[in-house]
Amino acid sequence: MQKNLLGVDIGGTKCAVIFGKYDDVNLTVADKIKFPTASVDKTLEEIMATLEKIIEKNALTPENTETVGVSCGGPLDSARGIIMSPPNLLGWDDVPIVELIENRLGIKAKLQNDANAGALAEWRFGAGKGAKNMVFMTFGTGLGGGMILNGRLYEGTNGNAGEFGHIRMADFGPVGYGKSGSFEGFASGSGIAQLAKSMLKEKFQRGEKVSWCRPEDIGSVSAMTVADAAFAGDDLAKRIYEISGSFLGKGLSVVIDIINPEVIVLGGIYARSRELLEHSMRESLEAEALSNALGVCDIKPAALGESIGDFAALSVAIS
Description:
The protein is built from ten helices and 14 strands. By secondary structure, it is α/β, with parallel strands linked by helices. A five-stranded mixed beta sheet has the order 3-2-1-4-7, with helices on both faces. Strand 5 and strand 6 form a beta hairpin. Helix 1 (40-57) packs parallel to helix 2 (97-105) and helix 3 (114-125) crosses helix 10. The protein is globular.
């Protein structure tokens, strides 16, 4: 039987409201409206008004619509449906998003952080489909994580399970998740950019030139800037990604040894720049991970690509 679902994807710069149809096997995005993230009050009202617009446009009612799934960056309390001051959403302090939606629409709502929502999406419809034990990592601007253990989303005692980015990998290094040398510091877009800027500064202070960056442009260097140079064959850019890949492998080794998953799904930068990371990542994995656990773990790029935000929010509605 086909089910009507609604999804809300809340991001630091943009939001989306999605209408999906699910038949217990396949999920189809039937309608979607995007809009910029603004102040908390303005964005909340835009979310509600857009939900009502999609409901009216598609002849949805509380009787024929199952659930509204909300995906949002953490921290948040999924059990109580409250968004709790995410760093990329200033002013979103203890926002009872589930209660607000249910009171406005009369439709049940659920909330998950975006990494857990992404894990549900890749597990149901993407690279982790069919796995009993799966780990998903965002590997985008930051490094978020979600876990499917024994066929269920694992959230921990208060929703903080899967925060792999906070693991310290070195005493010093790029800062991520409030820690110098953290897993996120080495394996994220912001971390790769920090690493690049540090290594570029060394070059410039020695009076050396870099073909893909002038000294006055160092502040605008991003992970994509470095990737483009690495794909073009630049040795420094390739080395930056090799360092990131090495620490990615070390971090994944910890996850493999503790959780023993059959699949690890990596999104974002890994999905786009896998060949720049793979060799050094594999070297670290072979050196660090338990061989019998590594031998049963398949590491894959995320499969949903640009659709993952839509599928993530809708997957929260399914869960």
